Amino acid sequence: MSFKTAPNWLQDLGLAIFSAVTLYANISVAQITPDSTLPNNSNVKLEGNTRIIEGGTTRGANLFHSFSEFSVPTNSTALFKNAADIQNIISRVTGKSISNIDGLIKSNGTANVFLMNPNGIIFGKNASLNIGGSFVATTANAIKFDNLGFFSASNPEAPSPLLTVNPNALLFNQIVAAPIQNSSTAPAGSTPGGRDAFGLRVRDGRSLLLVGGNVNMDGGRLNAFGGRVSLGGLASADTVGLNGDGNNLSLSFPNSVERSDVFLSNGAVVNVIADNGGSIAVNARNLEMTRQSLLLAGIESGLGSNNSRAGNITVNATVAINLNNGSLIANQVEPKANGQAGDINISASRLQISGGAQVSARTGGAGNGGSLRVNAQDVQIIGRSANNWFASSLGASAQPNSTGDAGDLTIKTNNLLVRDGAQVASSTFGTGTAGSLSIDAQDVQLIGTSVDGEYPSGLFASAQPNSTGDAGDLTVKTNTLVVRNGAVVNTATFGKGKGGSLSVDAQDVQIIGTNPNDPNQPSVLNASARQNSTGNAGDLTVRTNTLLVRDGAQVGTGTFGAGKGGNLSVDAQDVQIIGTSADGQAFSGLFASAQSNSTGDAGDLMVRTNTLLVREGAQVSAGTFGAGKGGNLSVDAQDVQIIGTSVDGEYPSGLFASSGLNSTGDAGNFTLVRTNTLLVWDGAGVGVESLGTGTAGNMTLSARSIRLNNNASLSATTLSPKVDPNREQATIKINSNDLIISRNSNIITNARGANVIGGNININTDVLAGFQNSDITADSTDFRGGNVRIKTKNIFGIQFRDIPSPNTSDITATGATRELSGNVEITTPDIDPTNGLIELPINLVDASQQISTACTPGSRQSQSSFVSTGRGGLPISPTEPLQDTSTLSAWVRLRPKPVTRAKTTISSQPIAVSNSTKVAAATTIVEATGWILDSNGNVKLVAQVPSVTPHSSWQTPVSCPASR
After folding, report:
1. 530-546, pLDDT tens digit by residue?
2. How far is CA 756 from CA 89, 165, 192, 696, 789, in A?
């Protein structure tokens, strides 16, 4: 059997915890014994269970005590009997025993109490404090007084007469400093809000500092309501700064020295919540919080004012922060409280949050929530609590019934991983606005859902149900963004407020797959207004080099309510939208939509890219399924390829602007702004349509080349009669150099229903070719057909027919009756086929004059050969310059024109064809008698050849001089 080795930092954490627990288990209970190292030594007398500590050496406002051992047994009290004017009681242990505190430490007045023992300090379950000032427990070797001297425990000596100033540093000179442990859960009175408090407690507004080697809190609690708690230590020799202003003490740690570890386990709690102030600072190599351990700051329920402000929580770990099993770091304005919450600042090399643990900056009252900032090399947010109730998360929020604004959430990291149902979120449930969520990373991966598939992993910025505040914006700046297996990046409103905008700026964006437990839940990048909301959705903007959306994943904006959907804008070098979900029910796509039962308008969808590829059933779509209007879809690309269908053939790949079944809103337009090549292939389609009562949009295509092949289509479909007679609907406008449709492909405007007029088709192209039963039709099933207007220089393989033939390429504009047929106008300004054709002579040139005798095969001057192959004709002379011989030809079958419902005209100028025109005789074809060159060098067949003066080539013939 093989075992995986845990990372070094986890091994270090485990070793440190084991050492700390071992230390606590093997300690013996000592007493308080003074030594004789002071000018005025300490005195201890026992009265009942109370040891009264008197004497000591006083210097100014400082009182110094020195003991060879110092411990307080269970149910015992150590009382420092000091004068009222003493500001600092500074005690040291010079012996070799650990201080075991399982009773009460008490002092008079408002003095700060320092307990220094380099051997270690243990606070048991019954340990408690009753002092007027701040309390510092440290395993440092000495306390420094500015540059005037030290009060040393490892090198005892009488304090200098100058040691009248406040202490300003803690000096560690051990290779490994001894640990401090706290397991105290002793009753500690009531919180400022009237709740029961337990553990070590200093008076409200005072400071409680544990500074050692490792600091371990196993179920223990620390309380400094409205004050400060600082935890930390050093793992090597150096100095920790001690900053003080009266009773307010804090620590400053050097950046260049290795720190020790801090552990909170089994429900350990650090609590500074009050009506004002209250801050927590943790400085460590590693911080681990497990089994519902807590760091709490903020404004307590029922307390505070408009001017109240909580302090900050600052966690600085040089290696790792690990929060798990429901542990929590929170800075909050509690319900019915008033005031500004403080911020949470987290800095580490690695941050891991798992097992339902959370870091939360929030407000539940009248004040604003604080901001949450994370700065780490690697951030991992993983999974949920064991009961699946709580997501592992980073969050900034305004809670239900709150009126304050939520703070911002900012993450700066190299790598961000959110997986297995974990979440990073900014939100509002109240009347205040939500904060913004900003991610600045090298790599962002959002993966999967909770084990049961119910909760997606992701990034969220939202205004929740019953809220009236606006949602915040969500910004992701990264090299790589991967969202897969049902994960979500989402801004949304569920209430009256607006949804936030979503912006992604990346080198590579991949949105892949669906929820493994539910293929109908895709991986998404989304900005939306949700069901029953009245606020507008935000916009979604993606700027990237490469965007890949595949296997049922989706990128979109939408509205399910009364508010408008946001605009979706994609600006990329390469966009690939590919395939469907494994079961074929969810197709990959870019979407801007108004969903069923919504009343708001959908937003517009704009794609700017060099290359757009949509294939295997994927779609790019702007549409409405409700009462609001559908948005416009526009594409600006160098190359557009729309290929194939879903695996089962049910869903075509495509670009669409539409209104769906049962919708009442108008559909938007589709515009291909410009492209070199539009390729629609293998059942794919580009379409505008209205399947509801609203009008369809129009399609406008501008391209150098358009190719439709193998059941491909350009379509404009409508079931709705025109509401606005001045507005066209379901019209297709094409402007291209060449338009080739082949193998059962179609350009079609399809009108169905009573009084539904067919859309028009307007084509302007140099070359129009249709082969193998490919049609251009502007038909109406039950009313008047549309018009087809074609302007082209060359047309091949496709022709107008009143009655389409099943195996030919046709141009039609039929209606319900002959009188309701549309018009077909074909304009070919440079071709007049009525001039006719004549039979060409068999020999156009004298073949004997086409080969130079100067270049004789086999001779010394030329050992090469010349071979000409092809469809016939003679090779050009080797003495002439090379010429372009490419041609474009098509077979044309001439036959009498069938009886038709509508009449077409092919002319050098457009000629309208009336629906009521009688059937004319077949047009007489006159054979051409010759050909001419126009001013552009093009060859034209003409019925009569003008008189011209022939001339020979103005280029010098090629010669093959023989060498001698």
Report:
1. 999 999 999 999 999 99
2. 95, 95, 74, 11, 20
Burial class (CB in 10 A: 0-12, 13-18, 19+), 868: exposed
CA distance 831 to 367: 79
Burial (Cβ within 10 Å: 0-12, 13-18, ≥19) of residue 596: middle
Question: From the CB of residue 794, how many other CB atoms can be counted at a distance below 10 Å?
Answer: 15
Question: Which string of b and e fits 552-587 if b means at least 16 CB within 10 Å?
Answer: bbbbbbbbbbbbbbbbbbbbbebbbbbbbbeebebb
Structural contact between residues 579 and 539, judged by C-beta atoms closer than 8 angstroms:
no
pLDDT at 496 over 50: yes
Q: CB–CB of 415/452 below 8 Å? A: no
Sign of CA dihedral 614, 617, 618, 623: positive
Rounded to whole angstroms, the Cα distance separating 682 from 703 reads: 20
**Selection from 24-38, 756-770, 887-901 with the highest mean pLDDT:** 756-770
Query: What DSSP line would sit under 431-470, residue for residue?
Result: SSPPPPEEEEEEEEEEE-B-TTS-SB-EEEEEE-TT--SP
Phi, psi of 721 (to 5 degrees): -70, 155
Is 23's pLDDT higher than 90?
Answer: no
Q: State the pLDDT at residue 177.
A: 87
Calpha distance 557→493 (Å, rounded) = 12
For residue 941, name the pLDDT band (cuts at 50, 70, 90): low
Residue 279: its pLDDT value, please? 97
d(CA 280, CA 229): 5
Q: Name the nearest CA neighbour of 211 among 155, 289, 141.
A: 141
580 half-sphere exposure, CB direction, 13 A CA radius: 20
Q: Are 491 and 425 in contact (CB under 8 A)?
A: no
Point out which residues pair with 201 in neighbouring strands: 223
**Per-residue pLDDT averaged across 216-240, rounded?**
96
CB atoms within 10 A of CB 930: 14
Give the pairing of strands 775-780 and 810-812.
parallel
SS3 content of the chain, % helix, strand, coil (to 5): 5, 45, 50
Please tell me the distance from the alpha carbon of residue 881 to that of residue 890, in angstroms, as a whole number: 28
| Block residue for tokens 């895709």 | 522
Minimum mean pLDDT among 372-376, 725-729, 833-837: which range? 833-837
The residue-averaged pLDDT of 590-601 equals 94
* Residue entry with tokens 């969220």: 460
Residue 504's beta-bridge partner residues?
Answer: 476, 542
User: What would the DSSP string read from start to end of 222-244?
Assistant: EE-TTSEEEEEEBSSSEEEEEEE
pLDDT in tens, 766-803: 999 999 999 999 888 888 888 999 999 999 999 888 77
Paired residues of 645 in beta bridges: 652
Please spell the DSSP secondary structure of 275-330, one letter per residue: SSB-EEEEEEEEEEE-SS-EEEEEE-TT---TT-BB--EEEEEEEEEEE-TT-EEE
CB atoms within 10 A of CB 204: 18
- The C-alpha atoms of residue 802 and residue 901 are separated, in whole angstroms, by 5
**Please, what is the average pLDDT of the chain?**
85
pLDDT for residue 153 = 93
Q: What's the token pair of residue 450?
A: 């909770």
DSSP three-state, residue 354: strand
Single-letter amino acid, residue 296: L
Mean pLDDT of 482-497: 96
Judged by DSSP in three states, 19 sits in helix
Pair 91, 191: CB distance under 8 Å: no
- When pLDDT is cut at 50, 70 and 90, the band that residue 931 belongs to is low
CA 635 to chain centre: 22
Q: Which two tokens stand for residue 554?
A: 């989706």
pLDDT, tens digit, for every residue of 717-759? Answer: 888 776 565 667 889 999 999 999 999 999 999 877 777 777 8
